[in-house]
């Protein structure tokens, strides 16, 4: 009886946990997030579908992950280990939460435990996508999502979008801040840099003239919408990925040693950079986008000495960071509670005297430190570094042998840089974070990793031969 159940479990697990199904799971999740929001907006329902879609993805992704481990019990990779540690720290933080009710049920735009399961599952699914055609399908899904978001974004920038922003509607309408289908300009600023990075890299490596023109136009629209969010976050992400892109071009050239390719890539890069510069100048000079924000930033850095100046840094991000960091000594081991940043304000004895509270850290790394603890942050940073260097190593090594695969990895690496840099000043939210977790998995797919025990088995083979 037990044997029969075991055989059936393995049989169905093999059907569920396939590379094709992992790819389908990723694509459907990415595309349904914006489409779901459009479907509910038509019925004047705001920010309703996206949490539910990611919730569903959490259950489906978790089942697929379990199915994978039922069928693959002999070979484990570092990304599998990180899946376990991410889950473990999330469980510990939830179990030892200072306010379990808030951790479980959330508040406003908090992320639920099942949303974290969706993030981890999306990353895990992406690591199991090894074939080039499936990677290209996922890249095409990102282009589709970019296109879906561009249309409302452009309309929002001129005040022609018929719906309002769910969060801080008056300011968005008055300033014509772009928020895409995310309901907040800060939210959209984060993924808009990812979309811009995606289109920029696709343009740099495109082959046909027609494709180049289409991607160039899409890239300019992405950048226009990104700056039209009216946030300095967008500048951080765009500047960082552009710097990384040109470094990557030269690193690839050192391996390829093709002067014609280098000349082509630099020419296209220069064209993008010049176009971005023109758009930025026009938006700042004639449309007041980010008007005065650059001077404000310089002033904030110059006056960081006093507590009040630090608190006001980055549109009062300093205040949010300070309150969160002051809770760390009391909750350094397990954090104050999974995505429970608001409790860092509310548990204080002087809470009644504080001007206001905030449910997000506006810095993803500080947010993890405060809500999940020191070891959770170390684990997350280790994951980011491992993913980045795995992607870089595989891209540079395979650029001559398997150029198409290397190019796809380079595109995802640039998207990775765009998100992780802007994350220093932004928050993880349910309608934007899924995109990053897919990117995170795509830069360290298992055909670029070595399983645990690889060196030992290699030595055994060499000794036998």
Automatic annotation (TrEMBL):
Record flagged with keyword Transmembrane: yes
PANTHER family, sorted: LIPOPOLYSACCHARIDE BIOSYNTHESIS PROTEIN PA4999-RELATED (PTHR37422:SF13), TEICHURONIC ACID BIOSYNTHESIS PROTEIN TUAE (PTHR37422)
Organism, scientific name: Ruminococcus bicirculans
Main localization (coarse): membrane
Keyword entries, A-Z: Membrane, Transmembrane, Transmembrane helix
Annotated TM spans: 21-42, 48-69, 81-98, 113-130, 137-155, 187-205, 212-229, 235-253, 269-287, 365-392, 404-422, 428-445
Protein name per its UniProtKB record: O-antigen ligase-related domain-containing protein
Matches recorded under InterPro entries: O-antigen_ligase-rel_domated (IPR007016), WaaL-like (IPR051533)
Chain ranges of the O-antigen ligase-related domain: 220-380
Localization: Membrane
Membrane-topology descriptor: Multi-pass membrane protein
């Amino acid at each position: 009886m037990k044997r029969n159940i075991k055989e059936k479990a393995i049989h169905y697990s093999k059907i569920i946990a396939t590379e094709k199904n992992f790819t389908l799971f990723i694509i459907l999740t990415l595309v349904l997030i914006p489409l779901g929001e459009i479907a509910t907006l038509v019925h004047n329902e705001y920010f309703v579908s996206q949490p539910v879609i990611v919730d569903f993805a959490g259950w489906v992704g978790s089942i697929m992950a379990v199915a994978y481990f039922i069928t693959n019990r002999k070979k484990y990779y570092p990304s599998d280990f990180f899946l376990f540690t991410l889950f473990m720290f999330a469980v510990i933080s939830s179990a030892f939460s200072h306010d379990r009710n808030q951790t479980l049920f959330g508040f406003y735009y908090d992320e639920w435990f099942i949303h974290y399961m969706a993030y981890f599952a999306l990353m895990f699914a992406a690591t199991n996508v090894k074939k080039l055609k499936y990677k290209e399908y996922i890249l095409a899904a990102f282009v589709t999502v970019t296109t879906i978001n561009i249309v409302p974004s452009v309309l929002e920038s001129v005040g022609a979008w018929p719906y309002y922003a769910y969060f801080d509607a008056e300011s968005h309408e008055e300033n014509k801040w772009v928020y895409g289908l995310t309901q907040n300009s800060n939210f959209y600023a984060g993924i808009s840099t990812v979309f811009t990075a995606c289109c920029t890299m696709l343009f740099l490596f495109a082959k046909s003239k027609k494709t180049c023109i289409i991607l160039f136009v899409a890239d300019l629209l992405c950048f226009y919408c990104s700056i039209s969010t009216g946030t300095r976050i967008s500048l951080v992400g765009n500047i960082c990925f552009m710097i990384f892109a040109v470094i990557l071009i030269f690193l690839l050239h050192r391996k390829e040693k093709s002067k014609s390719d280098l000349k082509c890539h630099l020419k296209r890069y220069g064209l993008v950079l010049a176009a971005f510069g023109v758009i930025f100048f026009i938006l700042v000079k004639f449309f007041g986008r980010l008007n005065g924000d650059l001077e404000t930033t310089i002033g904030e850095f110059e006056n960081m000495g006093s507590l009040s100046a630090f608190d006001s840094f980055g549109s009062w991000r300093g205040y949010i960071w300070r309150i969160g960091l002051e809770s760390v000594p009391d909750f350094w081991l397990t954090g104050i509670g999974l995505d429970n940043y608001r409790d860092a304000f509310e548990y204080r004895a002087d809470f009644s005297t504080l001007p206001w509270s905030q449910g997000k850290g506006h810095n993803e790394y500080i947010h993890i430190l405060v809500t999940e603890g020191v070891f959770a942050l170390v684990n997350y940073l280790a994951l980011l570094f491992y993913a980045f260097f795995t992607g870089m190593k595989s891209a540079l090594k395979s650029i001559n042998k398997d150029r198409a695969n290397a190019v796809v990895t380079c595109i995802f690496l640039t998207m990775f840089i765009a998100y992780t840099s802007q994350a220093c000043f932004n928050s993880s939210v349910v309608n934007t974070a899924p995109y990053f977790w897919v990117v995170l998995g795509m830069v360290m797919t298992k055909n670029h990793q070595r399983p645990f025990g690889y060196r030992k088995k290699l030595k055994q083979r060499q000794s036998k031969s």
